[in-house]
UniProtKB/TrEMBL annotation:
Keyword line: ATP-binding, Cytoplasm, Kinase, Nucleotide-binding, Nucleus, Phosphoprotein, Transferase, Ubl conjugation
Enzyme class (EC, first level): transferase
Highest classification ranks of the organism: Eukaryota, Metazoa, Cnidaria, Hydrozoa, Hydroidolina
Pathway in which this enzyme or protein is active: Pyrimidine metabolism; UMP biosynthesis via salvage pathway; UMP from uridine: step 1/1; Pyrimidine metabolism; CTP biosynthesis via salvage pathway; CTP from cytidine: step 1/3
Quaternary data: Interacts with RNF19B.
Domain Phosphoribulokinase/uridine kinase residue range list: 36-223
UniProt protein name: Uridine kinase
Species the sequence originates in: Hydra vulgaris (Hydra)
Family: Belongs to the uridine kinase family.
Subcellular location(s) per record: Cytoplasm; Nucleus
């Protein structure tokens, strides 16, 4: 069964979407499967445009678009020579690495880390670099033969076929291949007549019967997009997905979680807090007293780590029954503000290894994105202190913890350390990862509409590293 919609004009928009794993879990802390959409249609039928329009109208974060084009097989020397002459059939089902595509989508659906190949159409080859993706709440997999592979077809939660007139597809392909893929018009036409058109009739057109929805697409189809989005939202609601805006109010009326550990509220600690929170504090004072407070915070964290009995011999020849840290310890800072806590960690454990993650908020979606990662070897065997200076909603912290879990770090071996946290951020992390120990010097009551902590400390990174105009 499938539904077909007549075309309706609408204004297209430029959209942004997040690449990264959203840690949406059920009440037992188990990750929900991503919602996987298959988007099929002939070459230049408008699949990517449909995918972006779906994202635009859907209006939720954590959506990833993956193209079947990324999974073209690596060509042999002979096949590469044929491709240079437009004699290689890129439109045959055998041109794709279906095993790799299925393995990748299975991992994405489970929320695991994947490496997406990057294919260069100008040279007919995969590039050495890959794109790291940590999954999403919604994954759109688009390609000319998305419905051809039976194993892949079974993974899809929704199947959409984009039906576009062949003349329009040819015109679009000519424009695209000449301007974007460095082809000449004779090569494009030759390839179209010899491979594209017959392969469409042989492989692609027959798979329309598998589609849940068929979208006629000559420009835009607002009616179809709205129906698709409505169906996706209904499915996401059934699965219980919550998005970042919903996390802000989740903590209201609930006590602070048991896995939260707060530095003792002594006069000294309150005095340090007053200095670094003061908007008129000099940068020298801000750094000096922040370091003092971070040292106290790290000492608190060390007291929570597992220790084991240890007997040593004193200079007098007597035995002393003490304790020593059990196992290995490393730190991971969330760049850039998290780097400020590295000195405090090394001051209490001088041989601690440090890793780094760069997670930044997309200014358009207000959602965190992973841009860089470098973790210590065999991190799964370590107690891990994850460091960030401040936490508002906890979205970046959730991503960072999820990444550590993807690298086989046990949840109970993670200690999330932050100077100041909003109550909503504390509850968000604790509810998703109840076995992660959260350590902070202060829990502030709320956040404002811009997700800033209230009363807060301002932009810690700018104040600490001197990138604020006020300094």
């Amino acid at each position: 069964m499938y539904q077909s919609f007549k075309n309706s004009k609408s204004k297209s928009k430029t959209i942004c979407y997040t690449v990264g794993r959203p840690p949406w879990y059920n009440s037992h802390g188990q990750m929900k499967e991503a919602f996987l959409i298959g988007l099929c249609g002939g070459s230049a039928s408008g699949k990517t445009t449909v995918a972006k329009d779906i994202i635009d109208v859907l209006g939720v974060p954590w959506v990833v678009i993956i193209s079947l084009d990324s999974f073209y097989k690596v060509l042999s020397h002979e096949e590469h020579l044929l491709a240079e002459k437009s004699e290689y059939n890129f439109d045959h089902a055998d041109a794709f690495d279906w095993k790799l595509a299925c393995e990748t989508l299975k991992k994405l659906k489970e929320g695991k880390s994947v490496q997406i190949p990057i294919y260069d159409f100008a040279t007919h080859s995969r590039l050495d670099k890959q794109k790291t993706v940590y999954g999403a709440s919604v994954v759109i997999f688009e390609g000319i033969m998305t419905f051809v592979c039976e194993e892949l077809l079974e993974l899809l939660d929704m199947k959409i076929f984009v039906d576009t007139d062949s003349d329009i597809r040819l015109a679009r392909r000519l424009k695209r291949d000449i301007s974007e893929r460095c082809r000449d018009i004779h090569g494009v036409l030759k390839q179209y007549d010899k491979f594209v058109k017959p392969m469409f009739e042989k492989f692609i057109a027959p798979t329309m019967k598998f589609a849940d929805i068929v979208v006629p697409w000559e420009g835009e189809n607002k009616v179809a997009i709205n129906v698709i989005v409505k169906s996706i939202k209904k499915q996401l609601e059934k699965r219980g997905f919550n998005f970042r805006a919903d996390l802000i109010t989740e903590h209201e009326g609930k006590p602070l979680p048991e896995n939260l550990h707060i530095v003792e509220d002594t006069p000294q600690v309150r005095g340090l807090q007053a200095i670094i929170r003061n908007r008129d504090a000099t940068r020298d004072d801000f750094i000096f007293y922040s370091k003092r407070l971070m040292r106290i915070l790290m000492e608190k964290t060390m007291s929570l780590l597992p220790f084991e009995p240890y007997t040593c011999e004193t200079p007098q020849g007597s035995s002393y029954n003490g304790m020593k840290l059990e196992g290995c310890l490393c730190g991971v800072s969330i760049l850039r503000a998290g780097e400020a806590l590295e000195e405090a960690l090394v001051s209490v454990k001088r041989d601690a290894i440090i890793g780094k993650m760069l997670i930044q908020t997309n200014i358009n979606t207000t959602e965190p994105e992973l841009h860089y990662i470098r973790l210590p070897k065999h991190i799964e065997n370590h107690q891990v202190i994850l460091m960030d200076a401040t936490v508002a909603t906890g979205a970046a912290a959730l991503m960072a913890i999820r990444i550590l879990l993807d690298h086989d770090v046990k949840e109970e071996n993670i200690y999330f350390v932050s100077l100041i946290m909003a109550r909503t951020g504390v509850y968000t992390i604790a509810s998703v990862f109840p076995n992660v120990k959260i350590v902070t010097a202060s829990v502030d009551p709320t956040t404002n509409e811009e997700y800033h902590i209230i009363p807060g400390i301002g932009n810690f990174g700018n104040r600490y590293f001197g990138t604020d105009d006020d300094y």
